[in-house]
Structures are given as C-alpha cells and as structure tokens.
Amino acid sequence: MSVVTRLSIRARAMVVGGVASLALLAVGAFVPIPYVALGPGVTYNTLSAVGGTEVITFSGSGVPASVSEDKGPGHLNMTTISVYDHQTLFQAIGLWADGDYSLVPREEIFPPDKTVEQVNRENAQQFSDSQSNAEIAALRYLKYPNVVYVGTIPESSPSAGVLQPQDQITAVDGTAVTDYASLRAVLARTRPGQVATVTVDRGGKRVDARVTLADAAKTGAPAGSTQGFLGIGAVERPKAPFTIKISLANIGGPSAGLMFTLGVIDKLTPGDLTGGRFIAGTGTMEIDDDKGTVGAIGGILMKEIAARDAGATVFLVPADNCAEALTRVPDGLQLVKVATLSDAMAALKTLAGGGTPPGC
C-alpha cells in the first residue's frame, strides 16, 4: 500500500491540490504566454545628440548658417513604445497591473507567417523611410527647388536595366529637365521607337543613358497618346545643395516622421521653433500630397506617458489619434492636434508666442 493510499480522503485532496497548485505556479512563472506587453518607450530629442552623435546633421556646400546657431534648451522629442515578448503569465499580470502597459495577442506584433527577423527588418525599413520622408517634407515646406527622380521601373519597361531608381533626371536629348512639367514637355515631342538620351545624376556622377521609347500600350499610359514613354514612375521632390543625415539606430516603425521633419526645419531656419519648451510628439509624415499629412500611429497612450515621464509639457497628436489620446492624458501634458505639417508649424508658432493652439 502506497503512502498516498494510506492517507485520508481529505489529506489526499490536499496533496493533489498542492501538486496542482505547484504545477500552475510553475506554468505561470516559467511558461511564456501568446501575448506581448506594450509600454512607454524611450524618447529622443531630434535637436540634440544621442550617444555623442547629433541626431540631425548636415554636410556639403550651402548649409545655412542657422544650423550652427545655439537653439537654446528647447526639445522636439520623438517617442517610442517598448515591446516585451516571451512574457510569462505572472510577468504579464505584473506589467498590466502597473497601469502603463497593455497586453495584445503576439500575432498582432509578430504575424505567424513572418519570422521575428523579418518583422524587425520591415520595422527598420519603415524607420528609414520615415527619415527620407522627413527630409523631403522639410525641404518642400521650405520651398527648396524640385527635381525629378526615377521611381519604380517595371520589368517590361524600356528603361529597365538602363535607368535606376533614384537616378535624378537632368535632361532628355539635351533639353534640361528641372521638374515634372519640364519632363512631360520634352517627352511630348517624342515618338515611340525613338532612341532618347536621358541624362541622369547617379550618385553624383553624370550618366547618359539611351532609352528606346515605348508606346502608350506598353507603359499603361492613356490610350491614344502618340508620344514616346520612358516607362518609369517619375517622382518630383525637392533637393538641397547639401546632404542631410539622420542618425538613430535600433528603432523601428514610421511614427517619428513628423518630429524628424520639425527637427530638420528647426535647424535650417533662424531662431527656435520650440520657444524653449519641451515638446514631444508622434505621427507619420506623408509626402504623396503637398499638404504634408500627419498620419495616425499605434500606441498613442504609451507615447504620451513616455513623453511626460521624459519632461515634455506639450505633445503633438495626429488628428486621427485624438479621440484615443483623450482617454488618458498624463497630468501636466498639453495635447495639440495636428493634421498636417502646416498645422504643426502653426501650433509651434502659437506656443512660442504664448498662445494656445487647437487641442484634441
């Protein structure tokens, strides 16, 4: 007869219950659950340095003198959220009980059809794109002259293997191309089958590429067009004589676009956009239109907390995030609604003048 069978029914129940409790405790303490915890992340001042390296720097000729100005103590901070993966049940409960964290199904952050490495690469690419968008939006707002770049090149295009994405088109058959309108004008005088010499700036070097122009049917252009086509997605965007570099690593996602844009504008213009205030914010920067639309982002509540914890008193909120942002506003943090880059610039001007810009 075993020890257990000699015990009373009550004692046996206690033993079984104890073993079950220990098993549950072990599961809660050591077995990851299919959820991740999201919480406030770090913030970085786009006007300052991180790890001894300036976040936004300029090089080359024609850099405005304002870049070297002492802008004072003001902040234009980008914000992030932190992601805690492989949480055990007890760890997750602890973070949730803290009040500053939320739990979401892991598949929302790491889709089952992608590896963690793939997700991280996509996030890193989005972050890189946000830096490029910020540069374009800032230069466009400051009315730097436009140039035309080669965008997409379909495999069936007559330009495939001849032109490259990011080539800056400077001339066609010797006629200068300074913007999209001038490119259209010179191509309007061509015919399908004609060999055109397309002069491009490729990484600082002049390249004369010969392209056999296609007809409308082969490029997806409107039927009835009789001119020749390069078969590219041409992109018009501003260009400065100097180079802008944004240096931040190990961060993902597109949501820093607005704050990078404001940081670039602040450095390229005299004076201080912040008026000495600690301003933080978030939002993507769209460049598909001239408005400079500020796009909505995820994790707005956690970014508000991160901003306030860092010392911010003003937080720029994408207009489409305002309803959620108002559900929990940290004490001492003023929410400012921005739908476009112009809204953000107007709000900063109002704040610097002692006024109150539109809030959420």
Automatic annotation (TrEMBL):
Pfam families: Lon_C, PDZ_2. It comes from the Bacteria. Residues 253-334 form the Lon proteolytic domain. One of its GO terms (molecular function) is ATP-dependent peptidase activity. This is Endopeptidase La. Residues 147-213 form the PDZ domain. The lineage of its organism: Bacteria, Bacillati, Actinomycetota, Actinomycetes, Nakamurellales. One of its GO terms (biological process) is proteolysis. InterPro entries: Lon_proteolytic, PDZ, PDZ_sf, Ribosomal_Su5_D2-typ_SF, Ribsml_uS5_D2-typ_fold_subgr.
